[in-house]
Amino acid sequence: MKTRRYQLRKDAVAIIQRGHPWIFREQLSSAAGVFGDGDWLRLVDGTNTVVGHGIYEAEGAIAIRMLRVGPDKPDAAYLRSQLAVALRRRTPLAARTDGIRLLHGESDGIPAVVVDRFGDTLVVASYSSGADALARYVAGVLASGAATLARADTEPTAGTSAAPSSAGGSPAPGSPLPVSDSPTIPIATATSAADRAARIAAIVGPARHVVLRPARRRRGLPLPPRVLRGSPPDVVTITEDGQTYAIDLAGGQKTGTYLDLRGLRAAIAQLPLAGKTVLNTFAYTGMLGRAAEAAGASAITHVDSSEKALAFAREHHVTDPAKHHFITADIFQWLPNHDGRYDVVIIDPPAMTSRKAQVPGVLAAYRKLYRAAARLVNPGGLVIAACCTSRIERAVFHKTVRAALGETFTRELELPAEVDHPVGFPQADYLKIALWRAQ
């Protein structure tokens, strides 16, 4: 794609040199007003040296999403190699599940594009209208088959990731954008294209169906999903750690469900819940409740504001109907007025803001939820606290939960990010999950 030149101010150049993938609108000069949504920019400093390349966004706080640091263009070969590196990091998941986030936006070096695999179906989505064209390209590469990516998955072109932005170092010119500081996956040892293709195919799957979901528009009508391959069913199934889950492709949240909660589902499934009672608030389609039933729970109460989501849960995520009870309610109103007692209470609210000014109100809502949850837990029981709001920092969330639960609760376990949801920069650390034990 043709790029347009734009000279950055010094503070914006410093952001790139620190390895952060976003330049905010307040850091741009008025000269940027000539660019259109989705324009690819060649970014230069005051000496006309190319310091990187990015995609322009016409609206919103984020004005430029970085594609590549340094003078080298982010051409098709580079993008394929970034995608191949991302897939290689997912190698450990292929033996556990066929529900995998294959690409995680900026944290995998391809901004504003995510790809979720649900069995034999791939959902490619952009969360910025300026990145829709990039999402179409990624979808095309994945639809073309493993052989295309195998050619990109070589040591000289793929290499290793730069240091994470939290380390404060500057990426080498032409390097990929920073990725997670999670344990790295060794460079592939496969020596032939056939071996590399087989490894990639195990991660990507057969990709019989490929769906493209454009970003939500700030103005005008939303663009409908496009089917690029096959005939995706409305509901697909995945297997995760031996458990089967259903995904609502036609009407589900995000790309269909929340793959980032895999670690929580695994943690719940491993709890000693034989004969125990579970309250699953913000239950959505009941996947966490299914994990609780697999762990032996004798009674699981699901509460959600969506009757449609609970109907899906009832149909797809119940083995023994006698163990499940479904309640449609506004949880913020229902929980403080509820008088039940449980061995496990799960609090997993949706993201409630993307604006800094709204954070105090969200924290107040959290305090209300966890004060209500604390009085419902049996001695020795658990509160599972989750937050998926990136504006709320990890330490602030834990401090808020601790204060609301009271001194009788101790944080027993904090779950790390899943390998397919790497944390490549501070704002990507959105999901916080901890288990709190009552005395």
Describe the structure.
With 439 residues, the protein is an alpha/beta fold. The chain folds into three domains: 3-69, Archaeosine Trna-guanine Transglycosylase, Chain: A, domain 4; 76-229, Transcription Regulator spoIIAA (2-Layer Sandwich), CATH 3.30.750.80; 251-438, Vaccinia Virus protein VP39 (Rossmann fold), CATH 3.40.50. Helices cover 26% and strands 26% of the residues. α2 (76-89) packs across α4 (146-152), α4 (146-152) crosses α6 (193-204) and α11 packs parallel to α12 (394-405). The longest helix has 16 residues, at 359-374. The protein is globular and about 65 Å long.
Q: Regarding CATH, which class of the largest domain? A: Alpha Beta
Structural class: alpha/beta
Number of β-strand runs: 19
Provide the residue-averaged pLDDT.
89
Q: What's the architecture of the largest domain, going by CATH?
A: 3-Layer(aba) Sandwich
Using the alpha-carbon principal axes, give the shape.
Answer: globular
Largest sheet: spatial strand order? 15-14-13-16-17-19-18
Determine the number of helices (DSSP H or I, runs of at least 4 residues): 12
Fourth-level CATH superfamily of the largest domain: Vaccinia Virus protein VP39
Mind describing the biggest β-sheet? 7 strands, mixed
Count of all domains: 3
The CATH topology name of the largest domain reads Rossmann fold
Residues in β-strands, percent: 25-35%
Q: Residue share in helices?
A: 25-40%
Distance between the termini: 60 Å
Unreliable segments of 5+ consecutive residues: 155-190
- The Cα radius of gyration reads 23 Å
